[in-house]
Amino acid sequence: MKLYNYFRSSASFRVRIALQLKGLPYEYIAVHIAKGEHKLPGYSAVAADNLVPNLLVDGEHLSQSLAIMEYLDETHPTPALLPQDALGRARVRALAQSIACEIHPINNLRVLKYLSGTLGLSEEQKNTWYRHWVREGLDAFERQLAQGPKSTYCFGDSPTMADCCLVPQIFNGKRFDVNFDGLPLTMGAFDACMKLEAFQKAQPSACPDAE
């Protein structure tokens, strides 16, 4: 397998965690999206959506982090990223999508560049936007955790796809000085994950293209 990704991309980070949890070797191919390498003509042949991550497996290119993680879970089911029961899977998917579909899309690099470039917001205005929406999303995430069963991670006593999404979001939030006070369940799950080797090996500072 080959993974096209960028060390700071939270979506790429999710897939790196999943690959580490499952012990799957892969070739790391860096795509510097901050420099626009994902927009170069050659990369369109790799990823039709010109995004990262993109996983090349058996000659096929897979995009979108949630879809990639579900593919990995179906083809390499141990350890599982989704619970065995339908209700558990629905809860984990909801938590993962709360990060990937609610928080991330309005705070990713292209949105932040549009805010500061096209709309002319100052650096502080852009960062205020980021902190507001991340914190609002994490407040909702915390409420979801509180309504679910008591657990070490986001759901249950082993990491799931929800944890693969949460940890990168917290990493990015720290870069922008997001306030994490009053999120005991969320940060408890994060701390539990970061004690595991798989999460440590997947983090941005461990990537070959880390800056």
Description of the molecule:
The protein has helices at residues 10-21, 41-44, 65-75, 86-103, 109-116, 123-147, 161-175, 184-193, 197-202; strands at residues 2-5, 27-30, 54-57, 60-63. It is an alpha+beta fold and 211 residues long. A hairpin with a 2-residue loop joins β3 (54-57) and β4. α1 packs across α7 and α4 packs antiparallel against α6. The model has no long low-confidence stretch (mean pLDDT 97).
Which percent band covers the strand fraction?
Answer: 5-15%
Radius of gyration: 17 Å
Helix content: 40-55%
Calculate the terminal CA-CA distance, rounded to whole Å.
Answer: 24 Å
Helix and strand string, N-terminal first?
EHEHEEHHHHHHH
* pLDDT < 50 runs, ≥5 residues: none
Mean pLDDT: 97
Output the keywords.
4-stranded mixed sheet; single chain; about 210 residues; alpha+beta; globular
